[in-house]
Automatic annotation (TrEMBL):
Gene3D superfamilies: lambda repressor-like DNA-binding domains. Residues 125-144 are annotated as: Disordered. Signal peptide: none annotated. This is HTH cro/C1-type domain-containing protein. Residues 43-97 form the HTH cro/C1-type domain. Pfam families: HTH_3. InterPro entries: Cro/C1-type_HTH (IPR001387), Lambda_DNA-bd_dom_sf (IPR010982). It comes from Yaniella flava.
Length: 144
C-alpha cells in the first residue's frame, strides 16, 4: 500500500495514495485524542528535529531524564511549569508547542481548520486598523 504525505496546518499525516483527508476521516471511527500523548509527540518531534538528546534537554530544563522520557511517551501528565521549562530548553514558545498540539488534535477529531480568516474577523480587523494605533479593545467592549 502506497502512502503519501499530506500537510494540514503544519502537521504532516501519511494517507493512502489518492485518498483525501476527508475520505480518511470518514473511513475511521472517531477517536478521543489523549492530550498528554499529543503533547509528548510534539515535544519529541521538536527535540529530534533539533538533533538533541533527551539528556541535553532534560539537563537544560532541569528535569530528570526518566521523567522527560515519560512525558514524551505520553505516560505522564506534565504541569504547566514543567511544560514551560521544557519548551524553554527547546527554545520554542509554549504557545507554538500548544498550537501544534491543537492542530494535531483537530486533525484527529476530523475538524476542518480554515486557512483563511473568516469575513467577519477580517472586517473587524480592517476597522481596528482604520481607527489607528490608539484603538483599545476595551473601548469596543465598553461601547457594546
Amino acid at each position: 500500500m502506497m502512502r503519501e504525505p499530506v500537510v494540514v496546518n503544519g502537521v504532516t499525516r501519511w494517507l493512502k495514495a489518492g485518498e483525501s483527508l476527508n475520505q480518511q476521516n470518514e473511513a475511521k471511527e472517531p477517536t478521543v485524542p489523549v492530550l498528554r500523548e499529543e503533547i509528548g509527540y510534539v515535544l519529541r518531534d521538536v527535540r529530534q528535529r533539533q538533533g538533541r538528546t533527551l539528556r541535553e534537554v532534560s539537563h537544560d530544563a532541569r528535569v530528570s531524564l526518566g521523567y522527560l522520557s515519560e512525558v514524551e511517551r505520553g505516560q505522564k501528565e506534565a504541569s504547566s511549569e514543567l511544560l514551560s521549562a521544557i519548551t524553554a530548553a527547546l527554545d520554542i514558545p509554549l504557545s507554538v508547542m500548544l498550537r501544534e498540539v491543537s492542530d494535531r488534535i483537530a486533525v484527529e477529531e476530523a475538524v476542518q481548520i480554515p486557512d483563511t480568516i473568516p469575513a467577519e474577523l477580517a472586517h473587524r480587523y480592517a476597522q481596528q486598523q482604520q481607527q489607528g494605533p490608539g484603538y483599545n479593545r476595551g473601548d469596543q467592549l465598553a461601547n457594546r
